[in-house]
Amino acid sequence: MDEKYLQLFVDETSLTNQLVLGALLPEKIWTPLPHFFQTWLRNYTAGTLVYFITSFLWSFYVYFYKYNVYVPKDAIPSRKAMGLQIYVAMKAMPWYCLLPTISEYMVENGWTRCFSRISDVGWFSYALNLGFYLILVEFGIYWMHRELHDIKPLYKYLHATHHIYNKQNTLSPFAGLAFHPIDGILQAVPHVIALFLVPTHFTTHIGLLFIEAIWTANIHDCVDGKIWPVMGAGYHTIHHTTYRHNYGHYTVWMDWMFGTLRDPSEDEETKKM
Predict the structure, then answer these.
(1) Longest dimension (CA), the chain
(2) What is the pLDDT of residues 172-226, one digit of tens each?
(3) DSSP H helix total and E strand total for the chain
(4) CA-CA distance, 222 to 219, in Å (whole number)?
């Protein structure tokens, strides 16, 4: 890519920095910072907001507005449990935000296969490549997650931090980002690896990274949406109780292909017998 085209990425990230940081922070805090650190601060600020807004609204809806409807009242997590999840997530958040910041740096320097405008490739190519991107991400997250369980030191020193939440009354939307920071980064790395393999729309890539925060909040609420083939909270709750099933991220397909799928409806039938 020539410098003129790469400048489109820099202009886009600079504008996003100005819009987000300019709306939330005094200029004297962020304008003196180099571009890389402005981008990190924007990701940190936006990531924190997305985490709290999503988790608070979803918790309010499930636990209070729909009290005893989706989740039995004796299975609602305590404020202490949710407070601990917030504490773990916020300790990790500064480190999580390094990943999108580094990915943006690599894109700005032309090291990836990102493109700036959908018109550069056309809508058909955009949609096709987005499909390939999502398949790679799904495959990568499945195996990264599975190895975080299968490789004992990785589980003991990294992933076990997240699996202290192993019952319905300890899981909540706030648990979605309650990971050891290295664990959380490792599970998001497939998003960045895909940039080197598949032509990817830059803004779509950044948007998908932030959608992760919303998605992980959703799959930790213990509410089974029963939308096949989505790997929703019903499947993920089983993962937190058996430790050996449902490693997938968005869909059930990887677990189905590799023999680790366990269906919530089968669990319900077993309980009734």
Answers:
(1) 67
(2) 999 999 999 999 999 999 999 999 999 999 999 999 988 988 899 888 887 887 8
(3) 12, 2
(4) 7
